[in-house]
Design brief:
CATH superfamily of the largest domain: 2,3-Dihydroxybiphenyl 1,2-Dioxygenase, domain 1
CATH topology of the largest domain: 2,3-Dihydroxybiphenyl 1,2-Dioxygenase, domain 1
CATH class of the largest domain: Alpha Beta
Largest sheet: 4 strands, mixed
CATH architecture of the largest domain: Roll
Strand content: 35-45%
Number of helices: 3
Structural class: alpha/beta
Shape: globular
Radius of gyration: 16 Å
Strand order of the largest sheet: 1-4-3-2
Distance between the termini: 30 Å
Number of domains: 2
């Protein structure tokens, strides 16, 4: 079987704020819609499923995020995910300039969980708490391919 990753879906509290954050990082919006109906209830497993969605894509065209904000049923707030919790962990991006990416994140009120680290001579990286509590890893390659 041939398999391909389609996208990573992330439920957000405020879709406009999340879109602004990821667009500023360099992703582009490729589509927006409002989804509801029996097919959505069946696919997702929630009665009355009604969401606003936005599809975003990385500049290379290989990575996509689907952001969704629930209209119904009401979104359930939970504690933000911590790096050591089981389940969906984070979304990671390679960036050409980590300092520039962190400046963009800061404009959205997003800061590193602890600081910037260096992984050997491979990456300079950090985790930031993004919109709706999403953990976003930003990594700058230290050597070119």
């Amino acid at each position: 079987m041939s398999i391909k990753l389609e996208n990573v879906g992330i439920a957000v509290r405020d879709i406009e704020a999340a879109i602004a954050f990821f667009v500023d990082l360099g992703l582009s919006v490729t589509g927006r819609d409002t989804i509801s109906g029996a097919w959505a209830d069946t696919a997702v497993g929630l009665d009355g499923n009604h969401v606003r969605i936005a599809m975003l894509e990385t500049p290379d065209g290989h990575g996509r995020l689907e952001l969704f904000e629930y209209i119904h049923p009401q979104a359930v707030e939970t504690e933000p995910t911590r790096p050591n919790e089981i389940g969906m962990h984070r979304v990671a991006f390679s960036v050409p300039d980590l300092d520039a990416a962190l400046a963009i994140a800061a404009r959205h009120g997003c800061r590193p969980l602890r600081g910037v680290a260096t992984y050997g001579d491979v990456y300079k990286l950090t985790y930031v708490r993004g919109p709706s509590g999403i953990i976003v890893m930003l990594a700058e390659a230290l050597q070119s391919d």
